[in-house]
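Reviewers of the previous submission asked for a worked example of the structure-prediction workflow described in the proposal, so we include one complete record here. The input consisted solely of the amino acid sequence. No template or homolog information was supplied to the procedure at any stage.
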Amino acid sequence: MQRTRQDAIEGLLPDERERLILARLQAQGRVLASELATELQTSEHTVRRHLRDLAGAGHCKRVYGGAILISPAGVAASVRMRESVDRKARLARVAASIVKPKQIVFLDAGSTNVAIAQALPDNADLTVITNSPEACMCMQERPGFDVILVGGRVGRRTAGATGATALLQIQQIRADLCFLGACALDPTEGIAAFEAEEAELKRAMVQASSQVAIAMTSEKLMTAAPYVVAPASAVDFLIVEADLPAARLASLKAAFDTVRVAAS
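From that input alone, the workflow returned the following structure tokens.
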């Protein structure tokens, strides 16, 4: 006799159920305990237990009613710089189109923001303040850039300066535009980072900027990180990839002022 989907769901072992929940998290970015309980024909208590286990293993962050996937941006910068180079270049080209001559621009650390530094055209007539030594190197010998490198301790994961010295420098500047390097972003949870000092510096950049833009690869959207930077409402431009599912793109457009899609 043919086994039905209901039979398969009812026959799931706990480990199989947990793997299914993790797969749903990875596909959708967030899950609701009530919906999973209905779909898996089990109790919300059981689902919440699975979510606690997944959170304990570092896969997700528990939020009210469910969980959000943990961002993959926690790996070292040297690894991220080699990943998805073409995808980041496409995002960077759209980001560069936002910039106007004579602006003062914060360029936060991050592999996508290094790609933005490379995408900015020569003779752009910009003052760029960055805490990323690599982004600085991309611009320092090119015409049309006045580059200011923010000092401080450079972290292995971020490859950007953080700490009291960097924070003080940022607080003394008023920028027209900030390209923020977001470790994780979710319409409800907002922008987040993996380290406290990193989050503090990002908050200072947001507060010191007239406009904030984020260019982000798809796997970091609808994800979480431990330290809150700012709400979704702080972002004026969100630049995303063309491969986003329609439902996810719609939820982002509902949460952010301007969403631009980079051509594939």
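The first strand starts at residue 30 and ends at 32. We consider this example representative of the routine output the project will generate in years two and three.
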